[in-house]
Structures are given as C-alpha cells and as structure tokens.
Amino acid sequence: MRESGEHLAFGKHHAGCIEVVCGSMFSGKTEELLRRIKRAHFARQRIQVFKPRVDNRYDAVKVVSHEGAKTEALAVANAAELFDMVQADTAIVGVDEVQFFDDEIVDVVQRLADRGSRVICAGLDQDYLGKPFGPMPHLMAIAEYVTKLHAVCSRCGREASRSQRVVAAESQLFVGGAADYEARCRVCFVAGVVEPSS
Ligand code: ADP
Ligand code: MG
Ligand code: ZN
C-alpha cells in the first residue's frame, strides 16, 4: 500500500477491501477508476465494472471519462442487482457513479469486501448544493482507502472541490454533462444554480 489510496498488493491470498475515489465533477474519478482497472488487467485479475442504470435503454454499457477513455460495464437497477451479478471468480469489483445508488449499496460493498473482493467505488462526494451525496459519507467511513481528487476551478484556476450547476434542474438525481456543470473551488462555488463562467 502506498499513499495513492490504491491497494496495490491485492491478490488471491489477500483479504478484501474497499477503496473510494471521490471528488467533484471533472476531478478525474473515472480516469482513476480506469487506471486501477487497467493495472488489475495486467495482473490478470478478474474484474467486473458496474454503474447505476439511469435510464432503461441498455443493459451493457460503458464507463466513459470526460477524456473519452472507456471500459465495458454492466448497468444495474439497484444495489441488490449488483450483488447478484458478481461472479464467484471476480476478484475486483469496480463501481462508477456510486453516489446514485440507494443506501443498500453500503451493505453490498461491505459483504463483497468481507468475502474477499477488492471493491473500488468512484463517485461524487457532494451534490450541486455542496451537500454530502447519498451513500458517499458512509462508504468513505467504512473504506480502507479514500482518495479525494480535485478538478481545476473554471473561474479562478484553484483546486476545485465542488460541482457548480449552471443549468436549472429539479433534483439531486439530475444527470448532467459538461455543459450543465462546472468545477468550482470553495470561494467561487455558489449553492444552487448560476450563470456559466464565460
Ligand atoms: P470525473 O469522473 O471525476 O467527472 P473524468 O475522469 O471523467 O472526471 O474526467 C477528468 C478529465 O476531465 C480531465 O482529465 C480533463 O481532461 C477533463 N476536464 C474538463 N474540465 C476540467 C476541469 N475544470 N478540471 C480538471 N479536468 C477537467
Ligand atoms: Mg466520472
Ligand atoms: Zn475558484
């Protein structure tokens, strides 16, 4: 184990663990998840990657970073479905956008780690109001390793920890893209919806 928050010594004869990769939008959570998955492939460990199903169109989807890097993933309706789909020989379970799962994800991740899986969870730690997002506080508390990443503030260039919504939407669950959110630092962030930075 080194300072990166990644359990590098993981292998067949190791106990399971939980790793959380968190931060604002554009902070590189998905890139970091993909990096860890790629390294696990080199180590010939069996991996399954999941994400919450935010619409019902596809069962098999991809996890895609803002840079366009991607990997195959399975879209699941809820935490119980995720648990049911993990195969016996899977050593590593990756979950992207984990903040969108219900609280049951905490038990599921815990059970997977208890039975020997390395579980890597990537998700937003805060919503567009700067409030803790869904199950993230709980996951961060029970994880062995937590990595907090930062984007670049779109207004001032400082390290950004918040996701500023620049397009109105009704709920926390609104799934936006690059046009709907900006990374902002503590100074530039305003809870709520504001005009985009020019
Ligand atoms: P996340 O999953 O945390 O939303 P991604 O891993 O998908 O982030 O994307 C990270 C990439 O986003 C960076 O490598 C960079 O190319 C791009 N990017 C766009 N806007 C910003 C920003 N304001 N700060 C940092 N990276 C940004
Ligand atoms: Mg992402
Ligand atoms: Zn700023």
Brief overview, please?
The chain is α/β, with parallel strands linked by helices and 198 residues long. It has a domain at 17-150: 3-Layer(aba) Sandwich (Rossmann fold), CATH 3.40.50.300. The protein has helices at residues 29-42, 79-85, 104-114, 136-142; strands at 17-23, 47-52, 60-64, 70-76, 92-95, 118-124, 145-149, 151-152, 159-160, 162-165, 181-184.
Descriptive terms for the model:
alpha/beta, binds adenosine-5'-diphosphate, 198 residues, globular, binds magnesium ion, Rossmann fold
The CATH superfamily of the domain at 17-150 is known as P-loop containing nucleotide triphosphate hydrolases
**What's the count of strands?**
11
In terms of DSSP E residues, the strand content is: 25-35%
For the sheet with most strands, the description reads: 7 strands, mixed
Class of secondary structure makeup: alpha/beta
Average pLDDT confidence is 90
Helix content: 10-25%
Which ligands appear in the coordinates?
adenosine-5'-diphosphate, magnesium ion, zinc ion
Low-confidence stretches: none
CATH topology of the domain at 17-150: Rossmann fold
Can you write the helix and strand succession as a string?
EHEEEHEHEHEEEEE
In DSSP terms (H or I, runs of 4 or more residues), the helix count works out at 4
CATH architecture of the domain at 17-150: 3-Layer(aba) Sandwich
What's the CATH class label of the domain at 17-150?
A: Alpha Beta
What strand order characterises the main sheet? 3-4-2-5-6-1-7
